[in-house]
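re: that chain from earlier
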Amino acid sequence: MSCEHDPAADGGGPAEARSMIMKPDGAMEPPSLHDHDHDHGAQAGVEDDLRLEVGVGPWQGERPSDPRYDPDLLTHGDRRNVVDRYRYWRREAVVADLDARRNDFHVAIENWQHDLNIGSVVRTANAFLAREVHIVGRRRWNRRGAMVTDRYQHVRHHPDPATLAAWAHEQDLSVLGVDNLPGAVPLETYDLPRASVLLFGQEGPGLSPDARAACDAVLSIAQYGSTRSINAGAAAAIAMHAWIRRHAFDQKP
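^ sequence. v structure.
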């Protein structure tokens, strides 16, 4: 049962929940619904001096007593990359709420080359509410593409694929590699188990030989163009969404 605070109930709330535009003189105004009617050349010049604000400003009115709310965010506003449900919440409160709803699949990705795609995979895992993300190989990984979502996602490290597989089997999780390799089973026809780890390789080389050996099955994604493979981050997003369609399509986000 949701116990979210309703700002309308106590007369308080964010000063402006929509994105705001900062004008050159520093004043704030909502984006116009008729901007597209302006002269394109003049508008392009104005846009150089505009800045789109994300999130909400300081809380207006009586402050909520709910301990999930962060006093600092209430005072200064919340510009984080979070859905409206979690505006002004403490990070720990957001994680606790996510933990109560996480899905039963895990995501693992090999980390041998400090691949930029790792951050993208973490961000997508957060979007689809994976239970954990597993970094296989080097402990330090490129966080840039995660867009700070790793603060809300549990991340576990394994030194090699064999260690990941041993841990997964102790948890009764199937390890499913995703790569377009000879003999791979089409993802589109495979009955994804609910309790599973989706394992991805590095951009370029794909799953390492050790990773392939650790997999209970390797799945391929159907492609119809001229390229031999797709981006590792894109492949991870497709596979995670396939799990969602199979096991969580009827659940409210």
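The mean pLDDT is 84.
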